[in-house]
Structure formats: structure tokens, C-alpha cells
Amino acid sequence: AGGAVPGTMQLFISASDGSDEHPLLQSILNKAVLQIGTNPPEILNPWKIQPENPFLQYLMATISFFAVVLLFQLIKLYKSSKKQAVEAEQKIWFQANHDFLTQLPNRYSLKTKLSEALIQSEISLNKIGVIIIDLDNFKEINDTAGHAIGDEVLIKVADRIKNIIAPPNIIDCVGGDEFLILEQEIPDEQDLHAFCAHLIKEMDAPFAEEQVGSSAM
Asked: What 3-state class would DSSP assign to 106?
């Protein structure tokens, strides 16, 4: 390789200075010089991109179509995943703050609600009332009729309280057979006693055996 470079340089010089010592070599070099910077059509044509090629247009259109479809699918998947995440978060929050059986707010959320009610009472100078309901001898229902019937009794009790209490008053399930009512619209103590009497009267009504049994099935 070291001897080839001087030879090439010598031939190039002889071609450039018009020497007639080697006419054949001079002719070859002249043709080579003329070809510098040109692209023979027979070499480039097979590789040349033809925009007017129908197959190429079809291929590009197909690729564009599938790219758009893929983009829409990705957007749809993202929205679906985001919706599921929000729903899962809401479900977890509800389960953490509500009783599984009665679906009433539980003891965990009671502290926050009581604090908010006390603050609002101080601002508005309105009285609030707290009523605690405990079902007597509830254990006997579980022991004699079974826990499934006992659960249905709790659900029916919660439903009765819901029918009596209206917002902004609050009902909480603070234990297995214990409920708390937060009355935020009690003008005075006498009205609170009257409400408790009405509540006891409504709770005294017996549960129909067939209703409880059909609900437990």
C-alpha cells in the first residue's frame, strides 16, 4: 500500500501536465476525472425513491392509518386506566370510612364529623345534640336465630334510623349494635327529648319475621 500512493500521484501528475508518455493511461485518467462528482444512472436508478409509485403510496397510507389507530388506542387505554384508578381510590375511601354491613359512616369518620359540627356550632351559636342507640339483648338474636339474621336486624335498624334522620343530621355506626346520631338542628333541650321519644317509638315496632328471613336468604 505504501508503494501504491506514489504511483497514483505520479500518474495523476502525468495526466495533468499533458505528457504523452503513456497515452493509454492518460485516456483512462481523463475519463476518471470527468466522472468525478457524477452519478451513473444505471447505478442510482434501482435505489431511487419514486414518489409516484402506487405501492409506496399505499404503504405510506397504511402505516399512517395504523399509527393513528394505535394513538387512539393508547389514549383510550390511558383514560380507562385513569378512570379505574379513580374508582378504586373512591372505593377504598368508602370502605375505610363506612360500616361494611349497614353502609353507614363508621367510628373512623365520626371524629372528623364531630369536630366539624362543634366548629360550626361555635360559629353559628346553634346547639347540637348527640344520641347514642344501643340494642338491648342483641347477642340473644345471634345465639338463637344465627348471625345472618342478626346482620339483617342491624340493617333494618339502620334503615329505620335513616328514614327518621334527615340531613344535615348525621348517623354513624360506632359498634356492632351501637349507633350514634348527631343532631345539628336542635333549637333546645326540650326538642331533643321530644325527638328521642319519637325515635324510641319508631324503634319499638317489631320486625316482621318474614321480612327479615327473606332479606337474609
From this structure: strand
Distance CA 15, CA 13 (A): 5
pLDDT tens-digit map of 149-207: 999 999 999 999 988 888 888 889 988 889 999 888 776 788 888 888 888 888 888 87
Core vs surface per residue 134-170: b (16+ CB within 10 A) or e: ebeebeebbeebeeebbbbbbbbbbeebeeebeeebb
Which grid cell is 2?
505504501
Residues in the chain, how many?
A: 217
SS3 179: strand
What does pTM read for this prediction?
0.56
Tens digit of each residue's pLDDT (9 = 90 or more) over 26-74:
666 566 555 554 555 555 555 555 556 677 777 788 888 888 888 888 8
Please say whether the beta carbons of 184 and 116 come within 8 A. Answer: no
